[in-house]
Amino acid sequence: MIAASLIVVLTITMAAGTKRMVQRNVIVRNLRSLEALGGVTNICSDKTGTLAQGIIIVRKAWIPARGTFSVGATSEPFNPTQGQLDLQDAQPKDIDFQLSDAEGTPINPEKVVARDPTLQEYVASLANLATVHQVQGEWHGRGDPTEIAIQVFASRFNWNRLRLATGEKPQWHEVAEFSFNSDVKKMSVIFEHDQSQKQWDFTKGAVERVLSSCPRYAVGDEIKHLTPDVKQAILRNMEASARLGLRVLALGSRTDIRHADLVFRGLIGLYDPTRPESAPSVRQRHEAGVSVHTLTGDHLETARAIALEVGILSTKMSQIPVDIAKTIEMAALNFGKPSDDEIYQLPLLPLVVA
C-alpha cells in the first residue's frame, strides 16, 4: 500500500533538489527532468570546450630533416613572444619525451628562419585567415581557436598575417579560401606573392587526408618522392605526438595551383588543456555509479591521452580483463557498425570513441 503523502514528499524532495541546483547555476524548468536525470547511467562528453578549455596552443612541430620544435609553457596563449622555443634534431617517434632534455636546445626563431629556406616554406604553409595583434601591451587573437594557435606559432618566426598581408604595401594578397570541410577534413587558402606574382596554395588538415594529396615531400632542401615507408614514418611521428594529448595536423603546399598534388611540409601538434574541474567531475560521476564516455573527432591516440588525464580511462589498464579492454576504445568509423544485439553483448560500452 502506497502512503497518500508519498507524492507530496517526492515533490518537496525534488523541489529542494531544484533549489540546490539553482545555487550551482543550473535552472530546472520541469521537475520530471530531475527524475530522468536521477536514472542516468552513462554520460557522453565531447572533448573540446567540455573536458578541455578550448584555449588551444601549439606544443610541437616537426619538419623532415630539420627536427622537432617544442614550445614551452605560457600563461598568454595569444602572445608569440612568451614560451621558450626549443629544437630537437630527432623525429617525434624517436624521442623519449619523459627525459629532461627531450625538448632540445633553445633557439631564436627569427634568426633561424632567416637563414633556412626549408623552414621558411614550412612557416609559410602555416598561413591562415586568423589574426594575432597587440593592443596597449595586450595580445589578442581573432578567428577559429585552432587557426589562432597556428598563427601565434607562425608569428614566433615573424610570419604574421597582419604584417605581411595588410597595410599600404602588403607582400601577400589573399586570393581564395576553401574552409574546413568535415568530409575532406582539410582546408586551403591561396595567397599571391606581390613581388613574384606567384600564387601559393597552403593546405592543412587531418594527417591521413593531407598525405593522400602529397606524392612528394620536402626533406631538407630537396623535394623527394613520398614512398610508402616514408608515409609510415610520418604516421608514426603523428602517433607519437598524439600520445602526448596533441591534436596533430599535416601541412602541405604547392606553387602550381592548376594541379591537385601537394608537397608535404611537416606536422604541427596542438594542445587544448583540460579544465581543472574535469577530473574531479569524472571522479564524482564514477563514485555515483555513472560511466563517463568521451566522443571526439580527434585521433584515437589523442583521445586516449586526454581520457587518461581526466580519469575516464584507468591508469591501470594492464589489470583490466582482456575482453573488456578490447571494447574500451573504438574508432568512430566502427562505432555505428554493430547491431543492437551485438551492442547488448558487449561487456562494456566503449569509453573512448574517436
UniProtKB/TrEMBL annotation:
Pfam families for the chain: Cation_ATPase
Signal peptide residue numbers: 1-17
Transmembrane segments: none
SUPFAM superfamilies reported for this sequence: Calcium ATPase, transmembrane domain M, HAD-like, Metal cation-transporting ATPase, ATP-binding domain N
The keyword Transcription is annotated on this UniProt entry: no
InterPro entries in alphabetical order: ATPase_P-typ_cyto_dom_N, ATPase_P-typ_TM_dom_sf, HAD-like_sf, HAD_sf
Keywords, comma-separated and alphabetical: Membrane, Signal, Transmembrane, Transmembrane helix
GO molecular function list: nucleotide binding
Compartments, as annotated in UniProt: Membrane
Gene3D superfamilies listed in its UniProt record: Calcium-transporting ATPase, cytoplasmic domain N (3.40.1110.10), Calcium-transporting ATPase, transmembrane domain (1.20.1110.10), HAD superfamily/HAD-like (3.40.50.1000)
GO CC terms, sorted: membrane
Main location: membrane
Membrane topology: Multi-pass membrane protein
PANTHER family, A to Z: CALCIUM-TRANSPORTING ATPASE
UniProt-recorded name of the protein: Uncharacterized protein
Organism of this sequence: Fusarium oxysporum
